[in-house]
Amino acid sequence: MKSSRNIMYDRKIITKLIEWKDSPYRKPLVLRGARQVGKTTLIDQFASFFDQYIYLNLEVDEDKVIFQNRSSIEEIVDALFFMKDKKKNDGSTLIFIDEIQELPEAIGTLRYFYEKFPDYHVVAAGSLLEAVFNSKVQFPVGRVDYLVLHPFSFEEFLLACGEKQVLEQFYHIPVAPFAHERLMKFFHTYTLIGGMPEAVKRYVEKQDLVSLKPVYETLLLSYLDDVEKYARNHTQIQVIRHAIPACFREAGSRIKFHGFGSSVYGSREMGEALRTLQKARLINLVYPTVQTRLPFMPDFKKSPRLHVVDTGLFNYFAGIQKDVFNSGDLTDVFYGRVIEHVVGQELTAINDDLLRNLLFWVREKEGASSELDYLMVRDGKGYPVEVKSGKSGKLRSLHQYVDSSKSSLAIRLYAGSLSVEKLKTLTGTPFTLLNIPYYLAGNLAGYIDHFATQ
Q1: Where are the domains of the chain?
Q2: Which of 109, 282, 298, 330 is deepest in the core (most CB within 10 A)?
Q3: Is residue 110 predicted with pLDDT exceeding 80?
Q4: Are 120 and 95 in contact (CB under 8 A)?
């Protein structure tokens, strides 16, 4: 196993940060993501690519004062280098402004760094930054770049565990049959513990699942401690305090806002609370579409499916860790909610389009309703994705989607080995079904590219 000291270097996003660093079109970077997904640790280690590093935490008064009562960006820069005892022209400089949401005027200075000091590499982040994106704080639109940090993906989990040979097979298309059992084993472990950096670090160090309990408990407590910062008033504090633990129990299912989590709260107040948690990236409300042709549009009038930030947290707080641990086929666990959720976590991690959320498909007709787990958009085409074991002829919703969309390629993620079937729907529409082991969800784009050209 690798030393935990280097575990954050094994994140795929480091490559994107280096690309940003070297880009001639670089702007100040706003790093987005939920609390405890590793933003600060990541940038601290990214700083090794620079000659000097300036770290600011705007929850600390002595750092906050650098931005206060300054009439120009030049004064701010002078104060910054003076207070941090750095030289202005001493090689490449990374400036990291953490918890920037604590000082709205600091957010506004990002545009001036871009306009007047483009040679400095400026990154901003904050645990509650998402919660103020739609508030009165004015972000410098067009003057900043954005990058989202998610929990560890399965690929990053393998990197952190030092499993280079396993990772090579994950990358290889098509995956070799001899690698199936080992990849399945690691994916079950990943699904069980999740991708929160502290949980992954603890697992790599101790190889002890029981030792992760305080990690999960501390994470939930930190989210609850943030409630007063998320909320607008005392009433919303109470609603969010109810909603957070309820979300981790209800994850993977379609929900209604009214009475969510067996509460007395109505649709309006619970809807506001859940949307606030979505801004904070603690949850994701995944809406369905009824369309079978691009562009897919979410139908916000229909019930969303609830995803939380991490499947490991979901397993722990739903009390199903032992079910996951003992399972040979994750599609059998908790009515299939666990495997659908972790696949959604993987698909979210590989999505580089900040404006495109996960989608699933529904056809809601009396006596003939259908639901398809996900829609994957690739190179201007939509591909249906079903997460289910069993005989391919019984994938009724997938067949109905293919009939309506005339899609020539469909994907089924399951516990079996890789295979390709030439099929017809129940009404005779021909299509190719790509049966992929669910541990390859994070490499699904590569498999679509490969088999769509066959």
Answers
A1: 4-148, 214-452
A2: 330
A3: yes
A4: yes
- Whether residue 414 contacts residue 387, with contact meaning beta carbons closer than 8 Å, is answered with yes
pLDDT, one tens digit per residue, over 206-228 is 999 999 999 999 999 999 998 88
Contact 271, 258 (CB under 8 A): no
Q: Give one DSSP letter per residue of 138-173, joined into a string.
A: ---TTS-EEEE-PSPPHHHHHHHTT-HHHHHHHHSS
Give pLDDT, residue 221: 94
Full-model pTM: 0.93
pLDDT tens-digit map of 342-360: 999 999 999 877 668 999 9
DSSP string, 43-81: HHHHGGGSSEEEEEETTSHHHHTTTTT-SSHHHHHHHHH
* 16 membership: H or E segment, kind and range: helix 13-22
* Whether 302 contacts 362, CB under 8 Å: yes
Is the CB of residue 249 less than 8 Å from the CB of residue 226?
Answer: no
CATH superfamily of domain region 4-148: P-loop containing nucleotide triphosphate hydrolases (3.40.50.300)
DSSP conformational letter for 282 = S
CA angle (102, 108, 112) in 5-degree steps: 135
Q: What's the rounded Cα separation, in Å, for the pair 266 and 246?
A: 15
- 10 Å CB burial of residue 394 (0-12, 13-18, 19+) is exposed
Counting Cα atoms < 13 Å in the Cβ hemisphere of 381 gives 16
What is the reported pLDDT for 448?
96
pLDDT band at 405 (very low <50, low <70, confident <90, very high): very high
| Cα–Cα dist 200/151, whole Å | 10
Q: What is the pLDDT of residues 378-390, one digit of tens each?
A: 989 999 999 998 7
Two tokens, residue 388 = 């289910």
In sequence order, the β-bridge partners of residue 387 are 413
